[in-house]
Design brief:
The chain has 440 residues and is an alpha/beta fold. It has 18 helices and 15 strands.
C-alpha cells in the first residue's frame, strides 16, 4: 500500500489529541528549519555579492511577476533596463492557489499586459509542452525581485527557498497598513537580501520580526512613483470624457468571509446600493468598479459563477459605470475621488491628493491597522451606511473637500520617499552602492 493511502487509512483511527501533538511537532520543526535558514541567509548573500563583484558583463535581474494589478516595479524595471550595468527581464510566474484555470488565465493576462508595455517578458509555463522554465539554467539570475512574499501563492519551484544562493529583493505589493506582524514576518522577508520599505515607521516595526529587520532598507514605496512624477501624463481611461461628470472609484476588498485573517471587506453590505447610487446620479457621476483581483474567486465560491459574472457585467454595461482590472495608476490620477475598504489603497490613494471615503464594517481600526494607517484614516471621510455614501457623493459633485489641506500635509510629512527621489531610484542607488558598481 502507498504511504499516502496508508496515512489516510490510519488517521481516522488515531485519537485527536495524538494528531494534534504530531501536528504541533511538525509545525515546530518547520519553524526551527526556517530559523536555521534565516540565520544562514546573510552568509550566503555575502558569497553571492563577491561572485557578482568578480563578474564581467551586466548583472542579470529577474522580476518574478504574479498579477498585473499588484505590479509595483514599472519605474524600477525601466531604470534597470536603461542602465548598461544591468540586464532586466520579467518572468510571469504561476499563481497556483485558485486552481489551474485561474493560473492559466492570469498567466495570459499578465504576459499580454507586460508585452504591451514593451517589457522583456517571458512565461514561466508552456501550455503546449506543460513544462516550466528553469530559472537557473535559462536566465542565470544574479538578483531576483519578488512581488509577493507568501508561500503557496506562487508555484513552489519559484519560491525563495529554491534560491538561497542568489541575491533576492522584495518590495511590498501594497503600502503596508496591517497591525499584525504576520504580514511582514514571512520566511521570504526574513531571508531575502534586501527588503525595501515604504517609510521609517515600517522599518521600526521590523525590529520585532525574526531577523530583527537586519535586511531592511527605507527607499520609499515604488508604487507611488508615478503619482509624484510631475512629468508623467496619465491616459484618460474613463468611459465618459466630460470632466463635468465626476469620476469616482469604488474598490472593494476580497475579505468577505469570516475565516479570512483580516476583515476589511464591506462588499456584501454595499454591492446593491452603490450600483443604485450610480444609476440615481447618472447625470453627475460615473463610477469605476475596481474590485480586488481575488474578489471574483471568493464570489465564485459564495455566489456561484453565474451570479458573480452577471454582477460584474452590470458594471461593464452601465452607461456611467465601468469594470476595471489590472493596472490602476492612470485610473487614480484621472479620478476625482475613491470609495473603498481596500488595504492596498488606504495609504496609496492619498498620494494623489484627492478625497477618499473609507467604507467601515464596524471593526475598530486599532484592531487591524497599524498606527500609521490609523492616523491616515483620520484624514478620510467615512461611511457605514448607504446614506453616508450618498452624502459623500453629493459632496464630490459640489467640489467640496474640507479635509484637503491636512490630508496633503500628512502625505508630505509621512508618506513620500526619502532623498527627494523616486523610490525606484533609491533602490537602484542601493544596488549600485551595495555591489560597488562603477559609475556610468
Amino acid at each position: 500500500m502507498e504511504i499516502t493511502k496508508l496515512k489516510k487509512t490510519i488517521k481516522p483511527f488515531l485519537p485527536s489529541f495524538i494528531i494534534k501533538i504530531y501536528g504541533n511537532l511538525g509545525q515546530k520543526y518547520a519553524l526551527w528549519k526556517e530559523s536555521k535558514m534565516i540565520a544562514k541567509a546573510p552568509l550566503l548573500h555575502e558569497i553571492a555579492i563577491n561572485r557578482i563583484k568578480s563578474k564581467k558583463g551586466p548583472i542579470n535581474v529577474v522580476f518574478f511577476a504574479l498579477m498585473k494589478s499588484v505590479w509595483k516595479y514599472d519605474y524600477l524595471y525601466k531604470l534597470l533596463q536603461a542602465d548598461p550595468r544591468f540586464n532586466a527581464v520579467v518572468l510571469v510566474c504561476p499563481v497556483v492557489n485558485y486552481g489551474k484555470e485561474n493560473m492559466l488565465r492570469n498567466l495570459k493576462q499578465c504576459y499580454e499586459d507586460f508585452t504591451q508595455r514593451g517589457y522583456n517578458v517571458l512565461k514561466s509555463y508552456d501550455e503546449n509542452t506543460h513544462s516550466y522554465l528553469n530559472v537557473r539554467t535559462q536566465l542565470n539570475p544574479d538578483i531576483i525581485f519578488y512581488t509577493n512574499p507568501y508561500k503557496g501563492l506562487i508555484d513552489n519551484r519559484y519560491y525563495i527557498d529554491k534560491y538561497p544562493d542568489i541575491l533576492t529583493c522584495y518590495v511590498s505589493y501594497f503600502f503596508n497598513l496591517n497591525k499584525s506582524l504576520d504580514f511582514v514576518d514571512t520566511f521570504l522577508q526574513n531571508t531575502c537580501w534586501h527588503n525595501y520599505l515604504e517609510t521609517q515607521f515600517h522599518k521600526e516595526r521590523l525590529k520585532f520580526i525574526r531577523n530583527e529587520g537586519i535586511n531592511s532598507i527605507v527607499t520609499g514605496y515604488p508604487g507611488i512613483d508615478k503619482y509624484i512624477d510631475i512629468n508623467y501624463v496619465p491616459s484618460d481611461v474613463w468611459k465618459i470624457k466630460d470632466r463635468k461628470v465626476k469620476r469616482i472609484i469604488w474598490a472593494p476588498h476580497h475579505t468577505i468571509d469570516d475565516y479570512c485573517m483580516i476583515q476589511f471587506g464591506t462588499f456584501l453590505s454595499f454591492y446593491d446600493c452603490i450600483l443604485e447610487i450610480a444609476i440615481k446620479y447618472s447625470a453627475s457621476i460615473q463610477i469605476a468598479f475596481k474590485p480586488h483581483p481575488l474578489l471574483i474567486n471568493r464570489l465564485y465560491l459564495k455566489w456561484g459563477k453565474d451570479k458573480t459574472d452577471a454582477y460584474y457585467k452590470k458594471w461593464e454595461g452601465l452607461d456611467n459605470g465601468m469594470l476595471c482590472d489590472g493596472a490602476y495608476e492612470d485610473l487614480f490620477l484621472t479620478s476625482d475621488a475613491i470609495m473603498h475598504d481596500s488595504g492596498s489603497f488606504l495609504l496609496e490613494y492619498l498620494i494623489t491628493g484627492k478625497p477618499a471615503l473609507h467604507l467601515d464594517n464596524g471593526i475598530p481600526y486599532e484592531n487591524q491597522y497599524n498606527d500609521l494607517a490609523v492616523e491616515a484614516l483620520g484624514h478620510y471621510y467615512h461611511a457605514s451606511m448607504e446614506s453616508e455614501i450618498e452624502e459623500f457623493i453629493k459632496q464630490i459633485i459640489k467640489g467640496e473637500d474640507p479635509k484637503e489641506q491636512k490630508r496633503k500635509e500628512f502625505v508630505k510629512t509621512k508618506l513620500l520617499p526619502p532623498n527627494g527621489k523616486f523610490a525606484s531610484q533609491n533602490i537602484v542607488d542601493d544596488l549600485v552602492k551595495s555591489l560597488e558598481l562603477k559609475d556610468l
